[in-house]
Amino acid sequence: MIRAYKFLLRPTARQTVALGEMLQDHCSLYNGALQERRDAYRHTSKTTVRYGDQSVQLKDIRAFDPERQGRWSFSSQQATLRRLDKAFAAFFQRVKAGRTPGYPRFKGVGHFDTVTFPKDGDGCRWDSTPHDAQTRVRLQGIGHVRVHRHRPVRGRVKTISIKREGRRWYVVLSCDQVPAEPLPATGGIVGIDMGVTHFLTTSDGEHLANPRFLKAAADELSAAQQHLAAFPQRTRRRTKKHRAAARKVAKLHAKIRRQRLDHAHKTALTLVRDHDVIAHERLSTAGMTRAPEPKPDPGTPGAFLPNGSAAKAGLNRSILDAGWGIFLGILAQKAESAARRVIPVDARNTSRTCPSCGHTAKENRATQARFACTACGFTANADHVGATNVLNRAGLALCAAA
C-alpha cells in the first residue's frame, strides 16, 4: 500500500528563515519558467517549451545565481518544473474537454507553500529509526530540522515534501510497501447515510451529530474577516496590522480544518473497528454544491428570475462544512489498512424508496426527517431509511460478486 505521513517540524529561528527563503527561490523559479513559456508562445511563432527544455537550463541557472538557486537541491528544482508542466498538461486537457481552461498563473510568495524532493537521500534525507526519540529531517541548504514524529513510519520513504501552513511547517512523507494491519473479524455489516442534520446515520438506527465546526466559529471568523476588510486598499499587504489581521483569519480557517479532520479520522476509525463491511452512498460533492444556473426573464431583457441561489448557498455551505468527501476518503484508507471492505452504492432515491415494499416516489419523503410510504404506509426516520437502502444495495452487490 501507499501511505502519506504528515509531521510537524520544529525548526530553529535561523532554519525558519532558511525555509522561507527556500520557498521564495522555488517560487521564483516556477514564475520564471512560466514566463519563458508565455514568451515563447507569444513571440516565437507559438513555440512550445517543455519540461525537458527547461530542465536542461537548470545547470546554467544555478551557476549564474549560486546564492539563490545554487544552494538548493537540483532534484527539488526539477520537481518544481514538473509541477509547472503538470499545470500546463491539465490546462490543455481542460481545453480539449471543453471546460473552463484556467491558464496557469504566476504564484505569489504567500501562495507557493510546498517544495517536493522526489527521492529520499537526494537533497533531503529522513533520519529516523524505529526507536529514535530525536527524529530529524536533513535538508540541503538548511541542515537537520527536528520533527515531532507522533507515530511510527512504516514502509519505504519515496518522496519528501516540506509544506508551510500559516506559521507552521510540516514534512510530508510518501511511502510505499506499507504493510496492512488487519483487525479481527467482527461479522458486522453496516450501511451509512450522510446528511446535514446528522453527520451520518447507520442502518442500525444510530445517529451521529453533525459538529458544524464552521458554524460554531462563524461569529469569530466573521469579526476577523470584517476587521481584515476594513483596511484601505492602499495599505493592504504593507502594514504590520494588516498582516496580523490576515494571519488571524488564516489561523481560524486552519483550526476549523484540523477539527474537521480529527472528527473524520475518529468517526472512520470507529466504523472500521466495529464492522467488516461498510456501505455508503457514492456522492459527488462537487456536483451537489454547484451553484444553480441563472434563469433569464423572457419578458424583460437583461433581467433574471429567482433561481433559489440564496437557499442553495446555505445548503452548499452546510455540505462543505460537513466534509463528506474528506471523511469518505479517510474511511477508504483506514478500511484498506485494516483489511475491511467499503462498498459505494448508487445514491439515487435511497431516501425515497420504501425498504418494506420497494415503492419509490418523491411523496414518500414527507418531511426532511420523516419517511411515510404512500403505498404501504410504512413510516420511519428518513435518514434511517436511506441507510437501510444503502445496506440493501450493498447486499445485492455482494451477492452479484459472489
Describe the structure.
This protein is an alpha+beta fold and 402 residues long. The chain is 43% helix and 20% strand. It is built from 11 helices and 16 strands. It has helices at residues 13-43, 51-56, 58-64, 74-97, 213-216, 218-229, 240-274, 285-288, 309-322, 324-337, 382-401, and strands spanning 3-10, 114-117, 124-127, 136-139, 143-148, 156-165, 168-176, 189-194, 198-202, 207-209, 277-281, 295-296, 304-305, 341-345, 370-372, 379-381. Helix 1 (13-43) packs across helix 4 (74-97), helix 6 runs antiparallel to helix 7 (240-274) and helix 7 crosses helix 10 (324-337). It is globular. The mean pLDDT is 91.
Quick recap of the structure?
With 402 residues, the protein is an alpha+beta fold. It has eleven helices and 16 strands.
Topology:
Layout: E1 3-10, H1 13-43, H2 51-56, H3 58-64, H4 74-97, E2 114-117, E3 124-127, E4 136-139, E5 143-148, E6 156-165, E7 168-176, E8 189-194, E9 198-202, E10 207-209, H5 213-216, H6 218-229, H7 240-274, E11 277-281, H8 285-288, E12 295-296, E13 304-305, H9 309-322, H10 324-337, E14 341-345, E15 370-372, E16 379-381, H11 382-401
Parallel strand pairs: 8-11, 11-14
Antiparallel strand pairs: 1-5, 1-7, 2-6, 3-4, 4-5, 6-7, 8-9, 9-10, 12-13, 15-16
